[in-house]
Design a protein that fits this description.
The structure holds two protein chains of two kinds. By secondary structure, chain A is an alpha/beta fold. Chain A contains twelve helices and twelve strands. Chain A has two domains: 211 residues, Rossmann fold, CATH 3.40.50.300; 89 residues, no CATH class. In chain A, the strands form two sheets. Chain A has an eight-stranded mixed sheet with strand order 6-7-8-3-9-10-12-11, sandwiched between helices. Chain A has a four-stranded antiparallel sheet with strand order 2-1-4-5. In chain A, 45% of the residues are buried. The chains are: A alpha/beta, B mainly alpha.
Chain lengths: 319, 314
Amino acid sequence: MTVLMEIKDLKVHYPIRSGFWNRITDYVYAADGISFTIEAGKTYGLVGESGSGKSTIGKAIVGLEKITSGQILFNGEDVSKPSVRRKMKYNKDVQMIFQDSLSSLNPKKTIYQIIAEPIRNFDKMDKESEKQRVIQLLDIVGLSKNAMFQYPHQFSGGQRQRIGIARAIATNPKLIIADEPVSALDLSIQAQVLNFMKRIQKELGISFLFISHDLGVVRHMTKNIAIMHLGRFVELGTREDIYNNPQHIYTKRLLSAIPQIDIANRDANKAKRAQVEAEYQEKRSHFYDQDGLAYPMHQISDTHWVSTPPTNISEGAGK
Amino acid sequence: MSEKNETQVQQSVQGKVPEIKDGAVIVETPSTWRTIKREFLKDKVALVSAIILAVVFVTVIIWAFFIPRSAVTNVNIIDQYLTPGTQGHLLGTDEQGRDQVKMLIASARNSLMIAFMISIIGQFFGVIVGLITGYFRGIVDTIIMRVIDFWIVLPFLMIIIVLVSIVPKYNEWTLIWIIGLFAWQGTTRLIRSKVLSEADRDYVRASKTSGSSNFMIMFREILPNLASLIIVDTTLNFAGNIGIETTLSFLGFGLPNGTPSLGTMVSAATDPTVLATKPYVWVPPVIFIIVICVGISFVGQVFRRAADARQRLG
């Protein structure tokens, strides 16, 4: 498999200003030393609680967030500078699907204008072929071509999200960042949109970076999962690694938080959750450094990386 | 031709056609015009104001074309201060013996035109500066907003009077630009605050990732979403600008001599005998100004309510 994108030691820090002179007194470490690679045609999941920095990583990759340090290599080229991105038409290849489908579509523009925007900016087409392309895209996302002349508020949440997807795939991108694309939708629509994204990914061979806090959704969508906590990766591995052999206490805690409908073993499950929580509280100082941040990750198998304290790597791997 | 293309497209994407197919229109929100209409019907005072304003504006604009310049410049002392109704002068004559009705129409045309131009200039610069400062934020925003804060505390009436006195070749356009210098700051603040919230929405981010330039995002994406706000602000500023122009003309620093204005007509009342014994000279322009300004603000309130769903009556 070819490496599409390589992220090396990505850091995004936001300054905190305070005091009389409004000087920078501290930083929020939204993303702190993130490294991973994205291969062409594969889907990656990025999981973490609110505020763990997963959206920040997505925005930094797509170019909406200024990165503090580190490198983003796209096809071997460093794209961390806006001028480089503009010159190579980076966003033609890297697109984004937003969480809030209503606010991500301009209420004053028709669906045609919305979908045609990236086509106009990146692929110079004549009017007729542009129109044909928009009709084709609407067809791909399962909307009739009458939708072209309507406005975003005339559609339901699921339809709007599919319009957002149509816009994202308009320029045949190689990578799409999906920032919690279904968390604003109700469950039945979620499944519809997710299956639909999966099919598009398979048919068009797009890589997805799927950002979510919903472990069930991520399990359904992706084969490779990264767990994030407080701006750092704590565990990275395949779906099986993460779900069947979690190593980090935070991963275990997240997994135990998935609701189960299992009335017969309700008490046993409850006790198990309490035990995981107790373990988390107990080993917290062990798994996180004195600032409360996760340690760098170490490889424990071909596909599995875990953030473990530097002293007992072997113990963490042995479990 | 187009039908042929359609079939081609359908063939080319066959196999990709998904199962999900739902009906198109789900929600129908009322259009802006329908909302405005409903607000007018709920507010009878505004409805009456709108009708009066429409009648007055149309009358003034059309009638003013048929008034020769001589009617407002020729002096005829014999006909001075004729009472209403005499010698065919419906509202009498003024100090120079000019027909008051014709004066009123010509003055209203000038005053309204000047107030309108000032509003356009104020909105134009206010919207552009507001868009830039709200969109780019940071240091640009800080510098522009501090300049505007400084500008707003300046006593603008005094500065206008000074500028009017020192400008060598002075005509109505000079006056428009001089007042216009002080007409855009409030608009800038209003637009900036709205742009600050609009620029944080995902559609702006989506436009950035779609490769649109900052200029395109400001004017093609954000500007249309400010339309209702701009309409409201223009309407209410228009009433205010009529007041500013007439004030200056009243004080003698407005329109140059020979160009009639509602302000100069009212300033006839500075003569104590006219004020006390000849109200027919100055009362008509005063009533005219009051009716126009109050009417415009009622209509402006309706636009404001139509633009902001929380304030709506209907």
